[in-house]
Structures are given as C-alpha cells and as structure tokens.
Design brief:
The complex is a heterotetramer, with 2 copies of chain A (169 residues) and 2 copies of chain B (87 residues).
Chain A: E1 2-6, H1 12-19, E2 26-33, E3 40-47, H2 49-66, E4 71-77, E5 79-82, E6 86-94, H3 97-114, E7 117-123, E8 128-131, E9 137-139
Parallel strand pairs in A: 1-4
Antiparallel strand pairs in A: 2-6, 3-5, 3-7, 4-6, 7-8, 8-9
Chain B: E1 8-13, H1 15-21, E2 25-29, E3 34-35, H2 36-46, E4 58-61, E5 64-66, E6 71-72, E7 77-81
Classes of the chains: A alpha+beta (169), B alpha+beta (87).
C-alpha cells in the first residue's frame, strides 16, 4: 500500500510490482493521461502536497477496509505533464478480479473528488487556465504559480494556429 | 465557550486562490474559535483579491476536509481549496 | 484492437501501447495470474487456437460496438505458466475512465465464459488435474495431452512433498 | 431435407475430452445433417472412451459456439469443448 506524489514520469511496472503477489490472481491498473482537449498541450499539476498524501493514504485505508484481501497503490504526478503522458495511476491486486476492479475504481473515483490536486491547462495559443473535474475553466494570470511550469512549453514542437507567415500549410 | 481575542489562524491558499490573493500563506489575527465561514469572511474583508473566493469554499483543517461550519481553533492550519482537479 | 495467443511471457507495456492514444485519457489494464491454490505450482494452458482467436476477436468487436470510442486488446498465454506469472491481460483505453473500466471488464468476463482455453493444474505432489472456471476439478491421465507440457515440469525446482529420502526437511 | 448417407463429420476434441477418447481429431461417418446431440451420441456408440463426455457438451461448428440442436452438415468441423477455463 503506497500513496505517492512524484515529479517524474510514472513507473507503472513498479506500481504493479508493489501490489502483486502470487495469491493475488487479479490485478487492475488504471492510468489517466493528459488529453489534447480544446488546444491543451500540457497540464501543470500542483497540490496541497502534505494533505494530498494524507488523503490518498486515507483512501487506500478505506479500500483496504472494504476489500481486505486487496492491495492498492496510487501515484499522482505533479509539475508539467505533456499531452499523452500519464498523470495518475492506480493499481489494485486481489485474489479475484471483482475486488481488483472495484478497489481500483474506488480509489480513482475518490481521488477525483477528494484529493487536493489542481490543474492549470497550458494551451497551444500560449494562454493558461485553471480547470476542475467538472469541466469548468477559469483564466489564469499570465504568471504561473510555480516556477517550473513555463507558459510557452511545447510551442516549438506544435506551433499555434492562426495567421501563417508565408506557408501554404 | 472561551474565545481567544488575540489568536491567529494560519491560512494556506492554493492554485487559483493563491493566484487571486497573491500569496499561498498568511496569518489572520481574529477571535478564535471561529467557523471556517467566518474566517473566510474575515479574509475577504482584509484582502480585496479574495473577493472571488466563494463564501463557503472547500476547506481543510490540519490536512483533513472540513465543512464550513467547522470551528477553527488557535494553532489550527486552515487550507482553502479550489475545486479539486486531480487525475 | 488486437487478440493474440502467445507462448511466451506477456508483454504488458506493448499491450498498453497498442491501445493508448493522446485523446484516450483513461486506460484500464487487467492482468490475471496463476494462484497457488491447493498445491498448484503451475498451469498448463491449452486452447482450440483458431477458435479462441476468432472468439476473442468477436468479443473485441462487441466491445467496440458497445464503447465505440474505446480501443481494446487482449492476450492469453498458452503452455506452462508458473504460479505468480500472468496468464491473461486485457487493456482498454478510452477518452473517459468509465468506458475504459467497463470495456476492460466486459472483455475479461466474456473471455472467461466463451473463449475455448483450458487449464491443467500441475500440483506440488506431481499430480495434474483439469480445472474449469467454476472451480470444478477432474483428475487428468498421467500422460499430458500436449507434447510440450511435461507432467513433471518444475519438479527439480520444487520437489514434491511426501516420503522424503533421508532428509529431515 | 436431403440427407447424405455417406457423409462424414470432422470432429475435433480438446483438453479432457481428447484425453478421454485418446485423440484430438477424428472423422465420423454418419447420415448428415444431424444435430450436434446426434453426432455426440454416435461418437459415444463408437468410442467407449467418450462415455464421460456429456450428452450435450459445449460445442462449436466452424469455430463458432452452437447449441446442441444445431444441424451439422457435410463438410462442417464440429468441436466438442470441455467447460472453458481461460484467464
């Protein structure tokens, strides 16, 4: 049982290895990754880190209580996560698949509504906005709240649309 | 109930709320205990930037979610949390 | 969308990579592995291979029909699989997690009741027995039905219990 | 319905059923079409080892599951499947 916030790419193999055991014949892994919705090129994740870890640990303890034979682990990535990269992963292993699926689903659903993590979407046009899990968005000040989240990250790799300069494409 | 007229609550703000107020951490001197809602009203009275924070935001005391009628005591750390967006 | 029977250890990373795409923000992976129930040290999986692949493809097509935005893949291992090793894996990726969970669960549930795969449990005491997914077991003749599944596989690594020859253990 | 008195059905057996009969593949000469159940009865009459196969086992014709009243025709491949145990 392990709840972690990490600042580097998630290690899914390690997460799986942490919950698997010979007598747990079913393992369910959920991976959430950044979608390119509405021009998003990356998401800068921040958290109330102490509380997020404490809340994740409480969620895992609740899962343990509800599915005593299951082992669960969760990792959430913080900092800038580019489109297509994983931001969160939950693993649950149990003797039977139903518990593994249910415990895994429980943890990700609880995480989405309880764990103090926020996302600031970085868009192709250089703007940034706060987004919540109900799809509401609020423009963000130009200055990012975290020094390691450049507002123009990824622009070189994916130029913004709009008036092109002499190119037919 | 005893109130401590000279107490201070440690307030932490995150994400958009920190951006609005311009800081992620401050101390508010006010009579305690007081409800979360009262602390938020006090913050709004003192910091114009806090106007856009809801009257009853998501809140945590000492790293646990609390309702807005929860009593904040001297020495508590109150965190005001924008709608969470993990995952 | 890919349905495969394989004779080597499952490659979970490849299975995940096969379903993931930037606009599929949720991925669910299920892994089933061999449990050491009642003295089992390994399972020898066999199949009606042509039909198993056809049936797996039909199941994936049904998942595609029910969750059009989801991509699903499945691999089942055949031959001898030791306790703790993975015998089956299902991956489903979709724009939202609910479809990913549901499609993944649908595929493994359908596989368990429809796909012609059989297991012959190899026990610590050297015996073998056929097992079905309802927990019924039937003794197997000493001679294995497949030439590549020795009835004494693994005995060197894990000697059967019983009358020992001069050893106090 | 036409019946072919000289037809043969290709029968495939798997796992425990192959073990019981001692082979995984055989041809049964019998009038066709015939139901799966009739083919199984014919098999049991000819092979003592098949006695433990149920009268209406799980069956597939040409790689698809069929019910035991499904008609097997000349040229079909009928597979008799023990209870499946994948996963």
């Amino acid at each position: 049982m392990s709840a972690r916030l990490v600042h580097e790419p998630l290690d899914l193999a390690a997460l799986l290895a942490g919950v698997q055991a010979a007598d747990r014949g079913g393992t369910c892994l959920f991976v959430g990754s950044v979608r390119p919705d509405d021009g998003v090129v990356a998401i800068d994740y921040s958290a109330h880190e102490d509380m997020a870890v404490a809340e994740l640990e409480r969620i895992l303890a609740e899962a343990q209580n509800q599915w005593p034979e299951a082992a669960t682990s969760v990792e959430h990535r913080l900092g800038r996560v580019a489109v297509g990269e994983a931001s969160v992963a939950v693993a649950a292993a149990a003797p039977h698949r139903q518990s593994a699926f249910e415990a895994c689903r429980f943890v990700i659903e609880a995480l989405k509504v309880r764990v103090p993590v926020w996302k600031r979407e970085e868009c192709r046009d250089g703007t940034a906005r706060w987004a919540d899990n109900e799809g509401r968005r609020t423009a963000s000040d130009p200055g990012p709240p975290r020094s390691d989240s450049p507002a123009d990250g990824g622009v070189a790799a994916m130029p913004p649309p709009g008036p092109t300069e002499g190119s037919a494409r | 109930m005893d109130t401590d007229q000279s107490a201070a609550v440690r307030l932490r703000l995150f994400a958009r709320y920190a951006e609005l107020v311009g800081t992620g951490e401050l101390e508010l001197a006010m009579p305690l205990p007081a409800t979360v809602e009262a602390v938020v009203a006090h913050l709004k009275a003192q910091h114009a930037g806090a106007a856009l924070i809801p009257d009853r935001p998501l809140a945590a005391v000492n790293l646990r979610h609390v309702a807005s009628d929860h009593l904040v005591r001297a020495g508590d750390e109150l965190s005001l949390l924008p709608p969470v967006a993990g995952g």
